[in-house]
Amino acid sequence: MSANTLSNEDLTGFRDIQRLAYDCAEAVAADLQPGVSEKDVAKKMESWLMDHGVDDWFHKPFAWFGDRTAFDGFIGFKHLGGFNPAFYPGNRRLEEGMPYILDCAPSRHGYTADIGYCGVVGENKLLDQLMDDLLEYRILLLEQVRQRLPLADISRAVDSLCARHGYEPRHKAYPFETLAHRVELLKDDGKQSHINLAHFGLRNIRELVAGGWGMLKGGDSPIWNSGKRADHAPTPGLWAVEPHLGFRGTGAKWEELLVVTETDAYWLDDDVPHVRRWQSRGLWPLEKVA
Amino acid sequence: MNEINRTITVNGVNLHVREWNPEAQPTIVMVHGYPDSSHVWDATAKLLAERFHVVVYDVRGAGESDAPKHTKAYSLEHLAGDFRAVINAVSPKRAVHLVAHDWGSIQSWESVSDPAMASRIASYTSISGPSLDHTGYWIGQRLKSGKPSEYHKVVNQLIHSWYIGAFHLPGFAPALWNTGLDKLWPSILERVEGVGEACPNPSQRKDGVTGVRLYRANMSQRLTAPQEKRTTVPVQLIVPERDKFVTVELLDDLYKWAPRLWREDVDAGHWLQVSHPQLVVDRVSRFVDFIESGADDNEAPVALRRLQTDDQRKKYSGKLALVTGAGNGIGRETLLALAEQGADVIGIDIDPVALDRSIELAQLLGANAQARVMDVSDAAAWEALAAELEANNDSPSILVNNAGIGMAGPFLETSAKDWEKILGVNLWSVIHGSRLFGQQMAKAGRRATIVNVASAAAFTPTRTMTAYSTTKAAVRMLSDCMRADLADSGIRVITVCPGIVNSGITDRSNFVGQDEAGENQKRARASALYARRNLSPKAVASGILDAIDGSNDEVLVGVEAYGLNWLGRFAPKLARRIARYDLAG
Fold it and tell me: Peptidase M24 domain location, by residue (chain A) (predicted)?
């Protein structure tokens, strides 16, 4: 599938499910109270989405609180290749001033989104700074994809921006040090639910594995990171991009779909919570990356 | 300076009072501890009397004051009554500044936390004498917490207070003082406490024998049934870190009782007014001047403001740290780690944008952080910085000489200018910083640490990094010699030898003897190697902090640093053979 083959109707479908996912995060976030656990919140997001017609997942909702937003501790760059049970929602309870991240990837009628939303109950200056700085990554990524630079180079540019900011690129704690991954259009088979394994939806993962197989046979990588395999121009299609910054136990991210065509690229939707936040803080639009 | 002797009588007990410079204002009253008399203040009193009206007196039972027979007459209430009578006599109108040591400090807490006395005491400098009531609460809360680590603190304090139990044994302490301890006491002070030339105290036997009643009259009652003693009086704690009788943990809860609290830990033993009179004089004068100025707490001189303490107290609270090359890599991470642990930090770098970012992050971590843009190879810039700190009576407790540049290429193609540049940044900066701030540290009387960041290259010959390795070997030897020299001044010197750290140093390294394209290519290759090794600057920073807290004088970071060190030591011939290969090329 390439973006050229995605119809306007398809793009609308993807945009709708991304909005739904962000609506879910905002609705659940609005009700967050100190004392609630990661598992409670993840479950709440799951039922909210199911109530709104979600029939499959790329992955079921995750929630991380406190220093788990920065994957501090055991999750290292190399531990278990990043496949780590610590990603799954745990019993950590939310406290006032504690940062949190909500991450969910629902599918509906074959359209999939993958979003990341962060916030805090109360105030957290470090989190504010991280969330402000995340703007530069959104601009840098789009600029360099438009220049059709190799994906690995763009990922390394993200790494250097992190170094300049004094942050750690914590998306490197994800499987395969993923800065972004492909999202494919699934068949709308009309079923109410689909099989998932250990929080991951089988159909979406099958697409990703197929992409990986294609890569081994000489095709492009379905995973966008700093590695050699991603040393090629941006592949047309949809990419769920998720820069994740960490600073001494506080982490922040956003995640949204980037549309790449043969010649151009654009964010599927500018009306997302983090962009609205930058607007309200007078940071948007930013002229250029530092 | 003339000493004026007088006697003040309180309920029939005659107290022997001495004062200097009665025309001056304000008045400083100093209260001695056990087993001393007011003579323990002689050195400090004479120095302070150059500017202030200074008063000392022999506590009842000590020196030339009367010694009532009944133990009850030594209760804190009576001792506070004596103090009140003395200040009413020597400074009837104006509040006095109180300075007290050991039992003098213990008894003074009684006056300081008496609301009726709050207007009579302008400030309180307390040395090695916690309030018995605060201590009672401190012990009670730790025992209630149910945590083994808290129990350990209590046991530790009880071990330091072994003599108190002994003092409750009938006849024990008096017998010791009567059988020669009084004569031995000056040499005990000299040998055990490091008090140089302790003068024999004419009333030593009486002070030792009678003073035991202080413990018997007050200890058990106050510790087991403590009262809530709060005070609004500004309190300055001077904490001698080598005190054998009071542990520093005992003071951790003090802010709850005395919210206007300044605390400085100094490198001295229990009798610091005898061993370090000038240090005590400096601290007391600074505090008295500030309180007399009437300024807000946040307008205090910077070195004093740093010492103000609250419930947010952390490991490096009250300390100033200087870090060079703080704009990125190891320097930035070290700056942030120190900031996170409560230190005030000054970051030094030549790149203003990178440095500003580091400072912003340090401030986000809650630190008081300042940027200093300068070229570390410039002696004049260092002197200006040192002079600025000195003008504020300020000085660092920690200096991290981290700034460094990389350079690679054949020796014969390395120009004199290349050499000057790398020697300036990598070696001269360490010399300038250590020399100027080492002088300040030696003077300040606190424990201080200089950390010099060398490299595994310091003990690893290579044909490709002659200039770099030479500067780092020099830094290592410089540190080894400084360590030996500065040990007597209480300054520790730590050498850090990291391996291949992904700090961005390769992006800024010079590769001499190359055209621009060749240099870029070499640089990219080196950067890729460093990225593959992926040893983080954070790992080095945490190695540095571990060394500051611990006792290692040389820290290796990264497995390659250990391997190369081993190779150089046990297989030097092999190391020299390997040096001939261009491994990075």
Answer: 14-262
pLDDT tens-digit series, residues B41-59: 999 999 999 999 999 999 9
Q: Which residues constitute the domain of residue A85?
A: 3-280
Nearest CA in chain B to A129: B364
Among A125, A248, A250, A289, the strongest candidate for a mutation testing the B interface, having the largest count of B CBs within 10 A, is A248
**How distant is the Cα of B383 from the closest Cα of chain A, in angstroms?**
30
For chain A, positions 53-92, list CB contacts with chain B under 8 A: 77
Active-site amino acid positions of B: 468
Of B99, B114, B109, nearest in space to B31 by CA:
B99
Residue B503 pLDDT greater than 90, yes or no: no
What are the start-end ranges of the H helices in B12-96?
A: 42-48, 76-90
Burial class (CB in 10 A: 0-12, 13-18, 19+), B148: exposed
* Contact assignment for B364 to A77 by CB distance below 8 Å: no
Strand duo B491-498 + B554-557: pairing: parallel
Q: Is residue A286 part of a domain?
A: no
Best mutation target among B314, B356, B361 (most A Cβ atoms within 10 Å) is B361
Nearest residue to A103 (alpha-carbon basis) of A165, A51, A49: A49
**B14 to each of B34, B336, B377, B476, how far by Cα in Å?**
19, 58, 65, 63
**pLDDT at position B197:** 60
Look at residue A81 in the predicted model and tell me its pLDDT. Answer: 45
In a domain, A290, yes or no: no
- Rounded CA gap, B189 and B102, in Å? 15
> B146 burial class (0-12, 13-18, 19+ CB within 10 angstroms)?
exposed
Burial class (CB in 10 A: 0-12, 13-18, 19+), B56: buried
The distance of B504 to chain A (nearest Cα, Å) reads 9
How much is the pLDDT for A3? 45
Q: Range(s) for CATH 3.40.50.720 in chain B?
A: 320-578
Interfacial residues of B (vs A; Cβ cutoff 8 Å): 328, 332, 336, 340, 354, 357-358, 360-361, 364-365, 504, 534
Query: Considering the domain boundaries, does residue A167 fall inside one?
Result: yes
C-alpha–C-alpha distance, residues B539 and B192, integer Å: 40
Residue with tokens 């290969």: B581
- Beta carbons within 10 angstroms of residue B196's beta carbon: 9
Chain A residues with CB under 8 Å of B364 CB are 125-126, 129
Of the pLDDT bands very low, low, confident and very high (cuts 50, 70, 90), residue A80 is: very low
Residue A265 lies in a domain: yes
CA distance B384 to B389: 9
Determine how many CB atoms are found less than 10 A away from the CB of residue A214.
13
- Per-residue pLDDT of B530-546, as tens digits, reads 877 778 899 999 999 99
The mean pLDDT value of chain A amounts to 89
Output the domain CATH number for residue A20. Answer: 3.90.230.10
Question: B11 or B27: which carries more pLDDT confidence?
Answer: B27
**Interfacial A residues in 150-189 facing B (CB < 8 Å):** 163-166
Reply yes or no on domain B320-578 having CATH 3.40.50.720.
Answer: yes
Joined together, the tokens standing for residue A120 give 């805090």
Of B328, B340, B534, the CB nearest to A248: B340
Domain count, chain A: 1
- Tell me the pLDDT of chain B averaged across its residues: 90
Choose, out of A160, A164, A170, A226, the residue to mutate when testing the contact with B (most B CBs < 10 Å). A164
ipTM for the predicted complex: 0.88
What CATH topology corresponds to B3-305?
Rossmann fold (3.40.50)
**pLDDT band for position B521 (50/70/90)?**
confident
Q: In which band, very low, low, confident or very high, does the pLDDT at B160 lie, cut at 50, 70 and 90?
A: confident
